[in-house]
Amino acid sequence: QEPFVADEYIERLAWRTPGGGSRGGEAFDPKRLLEEFVNHIQELQVMDERIQRKVEKLEQQCQKEAKEFAKKVQELQKSNQVAFQHFQELDEHISYVATKVCHLGDQLEGVNTPRQRAVEAQKLMKYFNEFLDGELKSDVFTNSEKIKEAADIIQKLHLIAQELPFDRFSEVKSKIASKYHDLECQLIQEFTSAQRRGEISRMREVAAVLLHFKGYSHCVDVYIKQCQEGAFLRNDVFEDAAILCQRVNKQVGEIFSNPETVLAKLIQNIFEVKLQGYVKDQLEEHRKSDAEQYLKNLYDLYTRTTNLSSKLMEFNLGTDKQTFLSKLIKAIFISYLENYIEVEIGYLKSRSAMILQRYYDSKNHQKRSIGTGGIQDLKERLRQRTNLPLGPSIDTHGETFLSQDVVVNLLQETKQAFERCHRLSDPSDLPKNAFRIFSMLVEFLCTEHIDYALETGLAGIPSSDSKNANLYFLDVVHQANTIFHLFDKQFNDHLMPLISSSPKLSECLQKKKDIIEQMEVKLDMGIDRTLNCMIGQMKHILAAEQKKTDFKPEDENNVLIQYTNACVKVCGYVRKQVEKIRNSMDGKNVDTVLMELGVRFHRLIYEHLQQYSYSCMGGMLAICDVAEYRKCAKDFKIALVLQLFDTLHALCNLLVVAPDNLKQVCSGEQLANLDKNILHSFVQLRVDYRSARLARHFS
C-alpha cells in the first residue's frame, strides 16, 4: 500500500518476530530473526509470481479487446461513408427540386402579376365610372371606416386624372380633385384627433396613408404645432425646448417613416419662432438704454442657445446636423453679433473711465493732465538723462493714487469682456477683437491709472536737500508691482488662449513689452531719486547731530559714550528704509536697490568722516561709529556693502594705531590693495599727523 517505505516495513516485521527487536536486548535472537526474514522473502517471491501471472492475463485481455474495438471502428467508418454518400445524393435531388419550384413560381408570378394589374385597372375603371356618372355608390366611398382604402383609390385616380385632357374630362377631374381634397382633410383631422387622444398606432396608420398625399407636410405641421401646446409654460424656454425635443425624439420614430426630417422641422420651428422671439424680447429692451445688461443678456442667451444645440446634436437630424444647427443659431443672432465688438469696446471704455473717475472723486483729486507733444517729450528726455525734477514738486500727502479695488474692477470687467469675446466673436475675428479689448485694458489700467500714479509719484518726490521729507514713492512701487502681477496673470490666463495661434500674438507681446519698459524707466527714475532723498536725509541728520568735539573731546579721559548720537539716528533711519525697501519690492529688485543704497550710504559715511580731525579717543569713537554702521550694513544682506564697511572700519584703525605700527597696519589684508592716497588721506585726519615722528613713519 502507498506510501510504502522499506525501512519502516522491515522495522515492523522485526518487531512482530519474537526476539527480533532492532534495538537489541536480553531477548534478542538473531537466528530466529534471520529465519523469519528468509521465510518472509519466500512468501514475497510467491506473491510476486502470482501478481505477475495476473498482470499477463490482464494484458492479453486488453490486447484482445483493443483489436475488437479497432475492428468495430472500421465498420462504423464504412457505414458513415455510405451515409454521407446518400446524403450528398439527397442534397443534389433537393436542389434540383427547389430549382424546378422556383422556376415554376416565376412562371406563375409572370402570369399572376398582369392578371392582378388587370383586376386593379378594372376596379379603378369602375370607380372612375362612378365619378363620371356623378354618383358614388361603392361602399368604400360611403363607409367612413374604409377611409384608408378610399384614400388609396382616390390617390391613384388623382394621378390618372392628371394625364387626362382637360377639355373632355374637366368635370370628372374636378370631382376627383374635390374628393381627393376632402379625404386629405379627413385624414389630417383623424391624425389630429388621434394625437390628442395619444393613439400612436392610429397616428402611424394615418401618417402612412398621407405620405402619398400632397398634404403630408401639413400633417407634419399639425403634429409639430400640437407637440408644442403646453410645452413652454416655465420661465426657462431653453430647458423646455430640450425636454420637448427629447420627448418627441422617442415618439416620432413610431409615427413617421422619416423621423429625422420631422424632428429637424420641429427644431427649426422652435428656433425660428420661440427662441428668436424670446431673444428679441430680452435684447431689444436693453439694446440702446443699458449696454452692460445688453451684453450680459447677449452672452447668456448665446451660451444657452449653443448649449441647447449641443444637446440636440445627440439626435438624428440627417446628414449634416452641425451645419443645420449652426445656421439656425446664426439666423437668430446675426443682427446682434455683427456689431458686437463695437458695443463691447464702447461699454468697456465708458465703464473703465467711470471706475477711474469714481476713485479719483473719492479722493477729492482733480486728475491733472500729463500732457503730450514736443515740450513734454523734451522734458521727459531731459529728466531721463539728468534725473532732475522738472517743474514744481507736488505734495501728494502720502497718497499713491493706486487702488487694488480699482484694478480688480478693471480686470474683472476686462475678464468678462474676454469671455464674451471668445463666445460671441467669429473665429476669424477673435484675435483682432481680443487685441482691441487688451488695448482698452492697457489704456485705462496701465496708462490712465498706473502711469498716472507713477507720474504723480515722481512729481511728489522732494529734492534731495529737503529736510524731513516724506518718501512715498516706494509705496507706489509696491502697489504698482502688485498690480502688474495681476495684469500679467490676466494676460496669460485670458488673453493668450485667444491669440496664441494668430499674428496678433507678437503684436500683443510687443505692446506689453513697451508698456513694461515705459513703467520700468519711471520706476527706476523714481527709485533713484528716492535713494538720493534718503542720502539727503542722512546728510541732514549728520549735519545737525555730529559735532566736531565728538571726535576731538576736550577731556580725553572722560568719554562715556560708546558711539555718537548722529550715528544712532542715522542707523535708525537706515534700518527703517531697508525694511521699507524689502516690503516694497520682490525678487532680485530688492538686492539691486539695497546694493545701490548701501554703496551710497558707504560713500556718504566715508566723505563725512573725511571732514573731521581725530584725537586718539576721538578715533576710538569713530571706530565705534563705523562698527555700528557696519552692523547696520549687515541688515542689507549684500556682500559688497558689508565688504565696503569692513574696509572703512579697517581704515578707521589708522586713526588710533601707534605711529610705529602704521606700516604694518597698512600692509594688512584689508588695506594692502587700497590706493596709497586713500590711506594717506585717513592718516592726515589724525591731530598728531603733523608731528615729525608720525609723518616720518608713514612716509
Automatic annotation (TrEMBL):
Pfam families: Sec10_HB (PF07393), Sec10_N (PF20667)
Coiled-coil ranges from the UniProt annotation: 41-79
Domain Exocyst complex component Sec10 N-terminal: 30-138
Sorted UniProt keywords: Coiled coil, Exocytosis, Transport
GO CC terms, sorted: exocyst
Domain annotation Exocyst complex component Sec10-like alpha-helical bundle: ranges: 149-698
InterPro entries assigned to the protein according to its UniProt record, in alphabetical order: Sec10-like, Sec10_HB, Sec10_N
Swiss-Prot/TrEMBL GO biological process terms: exocytosis; Golgi to plasma membrane transport
Family: Belongs to the SEC10 family.
Protein name as annotated: Exocyst complex component 5
Lineage of producing organism: Eukaryota, Metazoa, Chordata, Craniata, Vertebrata
